[in-house]
Amino acid sequence: MAKTTTRGRGSGSSTRHTMTAAARAAAKRAERGHREPGPATDEEAPLAGRTVLVEAPGDGWDDPPEPSPEAFEEEGDAPRERGGRRRRRLFTAVMGALLVAGLVAVAVLGWQYREGRRADDARGEALAAARRAAPVVLSYDYQHLDRDFARARGHLTGTFRDEYRKTTATVVAPTAAKYHGVVKATVATASVVSASPDRVTVLLFVNQVTRSTQVPGSRVDLNRVRMTMTRTSEGWKVSAVDAL
């Protein structure tokens, strides 16, 4: 009986050891079943689903500001603002060009107006000077030719003055002295043909009464004369005379 009891105890102890080893093996298998596949250890690769805790800084996290509705409106309005700026720049450029063109037009019109006023003044001044000059330039008396020619040259200017001097000295003076020629010119009417501020052309109808030993009595000639008047520092002078 005693031996039977001893065997029973030994059998129970062996059974308990066997169960404990089996439980440990099952626990190990269960633990291995929850690990990631592969040869990596826990230190080399974290397990799936593992949570890592990070402590917050002492002053808390700085959260970025939430965008306001105005920011979205400004982003949406940016293309329209750019288009508006382009239109304003275009409008400014167009208005600038129009302003410059307007100033140029005003300047041109102002210049034309001033030139027109000067031309109008020139018409009257030159016409009056031509009416005064014609009787002196177209008249002479053989008894005092030098005096008459000198007075006539006072109304002349430019190359015409030199031509007049030569013609009177070589042609008119010898003929007038030889035949006792006297010519008296008067202006019947005169009008302006063209005018600019510094140059005016005048058409004159001149009556010339001629006396000489070659003509019995007196002869009256009705002549048309085109006289060019030029503005000089001494006033309006005759720069050309053409008989028509």
TrEMBL record:
This is Mce-associated membrane protein. The keyword Transmembrane helix applies. It is found in: Membrane. Residues 1-25 have a biased composition (Low complexity). It comes from Streptomyces plumbiresistens. Keywords: Membrane, Transmembrane, Transmembrane helix. Residues 60-76 have a biased composition (Acidic residues). Residues 1-84 are annotated as: Disordered. Its main location: membrane. The keyword Transmembrane helix applies.
